[in-house]
């Protein structure tokens, strides 16, 4: 028996069901149930919350979420090979676990869960960033979720919490920090996973703010930031010239030097530029 419930250790589960991580699905299984419980605790008190988990695999983190008291867990797993293992977890936690064999990019959490909702996941490497951007850019704010507790490659995690002036600072940092409090909750070495990835990993915790830190139209801000960082080595007057012939004037009006580069510009300045661009639209 494992230390957190009456189910077998994950190595036995994986062996019993013949599960091997698929590189094509971005899978790396985390087998230490003490670590999965620690990740679950990093999401805060779950006793009054429903949880969306993406990519549960054999169910290690799923078990951690349920053992630490999550009201209900929706586990979305694309790989049908993992379903028998997850069914065993489902049987051990009656009426608290729903398993969907689906693509997380196509799932609406509100169709299955009741707020407050937390999203907690060891995200598959191949779709992790895309899912994060979707969760950070919903049609309305506040979003359907209260917080995100997500595992990424360490490099991606550092990009989410990066500050202006650093090499890691870019689009992800602006999108995340505009509407959330973001911090790295823990680091994990490659040896914690099966198979061990070539890079270290980190868990990021993002808490949704009631309102964005600074006013700006989301679509305009995303466009400006994407253009600025797509050509981050260029001065902003060159990187953003497609936004209008008077871009230098608009940059100056927003308090930004036209010769600055994207990595020098803070969140408040990017928002000011987005507002300036919108204010001058015909």
| Number of E-state strands | 9
What would you report as the Rg, rounded to the nearest angstrom? 21 Å
CATH superfamily of the largest domain: Vaccinia Virus protein VP39
Mean pLDDT metric: 94
End-to-end gap: 68 Å
Apparent shape: elongated
Whole-number count of domains: 2
- In the sheet with the most strands, the strands line up as 4-3-2-5-6-9-7
Highest-level CATH class of the largest domain: Alpha Beta
Q: Total number of helical segments? A: 11
Low-confidence stretches: none
Q: Biggest β-sheet, characterized?
A: 7 strands, mixed
Structural class assignment? alpha/beta
CATH fold-level name of the largest domain = Rossmann fold
Question: How would you describe this structure in keywords?
Answer:
282 residues, alpha/beta, Rossmann fold, Helicase, Ruva Protein, domain 3, 2 domains, 7-stranded mixed β-sheet, two-stranded antiparallel ribbon, 11 helices, 9 strands, 35% helix, elongated
Topology readout:
Blueprint: H1 10-17, E1 29-30, H2 33-42, E2 50-54, H3 60-67, E3 72-76, H4 83-92, E4 97-100, E5 117-122, H5 128-136, E6 145-153, H6 154-161, H7 171-179, E7 180-188, E8 193-194, E9 201-208, H8 218-230, H9 236-239, H10 247-253, H11 267-279
Parallel strand pairs: 2-3, 2-5, 3-4, 5-6
Antiparallel strand pairs: 1-8, 6-9, 7-9
């Amino acid at each position: 028996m494992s230390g957190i419930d009456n189910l077998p250790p994950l190595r036995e589960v994986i062996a019993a069901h013949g599960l091997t991580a698929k590189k094509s699905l971005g899978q790396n299984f985390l087998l230490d149930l003490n670590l999965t419980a620690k990740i679950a605790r990093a999401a805060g008190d779950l006793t009054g919350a429903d949880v969306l988990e993406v990519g549960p695999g054999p169910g290690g983190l799923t078990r951690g979420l349920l053992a630490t008291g999550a009201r209900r867990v929706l586990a979305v797993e694309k790989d049908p090979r993992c379903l028998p293992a997850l069914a065993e977890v489902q049987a051990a936690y009656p009426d608290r676990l729903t398993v969907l064999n689906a693509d997380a990019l196509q799932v609406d959490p509100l169709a299955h869960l009741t707020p407050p909702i937390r999203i907690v996941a060891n995200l598959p490497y191949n779709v992790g960033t895309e899912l994060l951007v979707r969760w950070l850019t919903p049609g309305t704010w506040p979003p359907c979720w209260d917080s995100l507790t997500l595992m990424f490659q360490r490099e991606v995690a550092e990009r989410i919490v990066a500050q202006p002036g650093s090499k890691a600072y870019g689009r992800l940092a602006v999108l995340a920090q505009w509407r959330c409090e973001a911090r790295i909750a823990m680091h994990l070495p490659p040896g914690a996973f099966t198979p061990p990835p070539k890079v270290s990993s980190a868990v990021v915790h993002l808490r949704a703010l009631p309102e964005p830190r600074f006013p700006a139209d989301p679509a305009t801000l995303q466009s400006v930031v994407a253009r600025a960082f797509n050509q981050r080595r260029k001065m902003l007057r060159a990187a953003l010239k497609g936004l209008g012939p008077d871009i230098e004037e608009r940059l100056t009006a927003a308090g930004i030097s036209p010769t600055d580069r994207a990595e020098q510009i803070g969140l408040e300045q990017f928002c000011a530029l987005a507002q300036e661009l919108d204010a001058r639209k015909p």
